[in-house]
Design goal:
Elements: E1 13-15, E2 25-28, H1 32-42, E3 51-53, H2 58-67, E4 71-73, H3 77-83, E5 86-89, H4 96-101, E6 110-113, H5 120-127, E7 132-137, E8 147-152, H6 156-163, E9 166-170, H7 174-188
Parallel strand pairs: 2-3, 2-5, 3-4, 5-6, 6-7, 8-9
Antiparallel strand pairs: 1-9, 7-8
Bound molecules: NADP nicotinamide-adenine-dinucleotide phosphate (NAP).
The site of NADP nicotinamide-adenine-dinucleotide phosphate has 26 residues, from helix 1.
């Protein structure tokens, strides 16, 4: 278990998760941050989890699938949801609503939204009846297993995933996550929007 070295604000909880073998992870949006997470999931791991990618972001998806046998590109976004219950949303925030409107979630789904600035209240509406919604802010350093991923609220499934590509940080409220997101967006180059 890795120890975190950064100072935490009062009330934050940080830890690394235990390892288990999830059925797999689905990613809606296969761009830069998805590529970094998938790369990290496969770095120096004998038995990486199955990964299901949406078909958009074709060149990145194809490249990941050609390098890693545990990665497959699905026929549609809905197909991603049929193959996995742990779902990462990684499309740009401005198209979030349109993309999610076309999907049918189930109560079994745990939705981990990486979309900057899209608040939990909206996400609950747009992914209903998904059982669990978590906002996450992974960093590109996930590719090297060195992301510090902030998440809110706490989630064992998200800890399991993002603990594989670095450490996790759980602030005590959503507003703190937004502040973290705003700070990161400067150097991640991905603007957040206020939804
Ligand atoms: N990059 C970061 O460091 C970072 C960090 C934390 C959070 N985030 C968040 O993660 C999200 C993605 O960021 P990113 O940097 O990875 O962006 P990106 O590289 O632009 O990737 C977005 C991907 O979404 C795909 N896409 C577009 N329309 C789609 C649709 N209808 N269905 C499925 N996929 C679709 C795009 O495919 P095409 O290429 O075919 O258009 C592209 O591959 C953003 O919401 C951002 O706020 C990013």
């Amino acid at each position: 278990m890795r120890q975190l070295s950064l100072p935490s604000e009062s009330g934050d909880q940080r830890s690394s998760p235990p390892r288990s073998s999830p059925a797999g992870y689905g990613f809606v949006g296969a761009g830069e941050i998805t590529a970094a997470i998938v790369e990290g999931l496969n770095a120096d791991v004998a038995d990486p989890p199955a990964v299901f990618l949406s078909p958009r972001g074709r060149s990145i998806g194809r490249e990941l699938a050609s390098r890693f046998p545990n990665v497959q590109v699905c026929d549609s976004n809905q197909d991603v949801l049929e193959n996995a219950t742990s779902i990462v949303l990684a499309v740009r925030p401005l198209i979030a609503r349109a993309v999610l409107a076309e999907l049918s979630f189930r109560p079994q789904h745990v939705v981990m939204s990486a979309m900057a600035g899209v608040r939990l209240e909206r996400l609950r509406d747009w992914t209903s009846p998904a059982g669990r919604i978590v906002r996450v802010i992974p960093l590109p350093q996930a590719a090297r297993g060195q992301s510090l991923t902030a998440m809110y609220p706490d989630s064992a499934v998200a800890r399991e995933l993002f603990g594989r590509v670095g450490d996790v940080l759980v602030p005590s409220k959503e507003e703190t996550l937004d502040a973290f997101s705003a700070a990161c967006s400067t150097w991640c180059g991905v603007p957040s929007i206020g939804y």
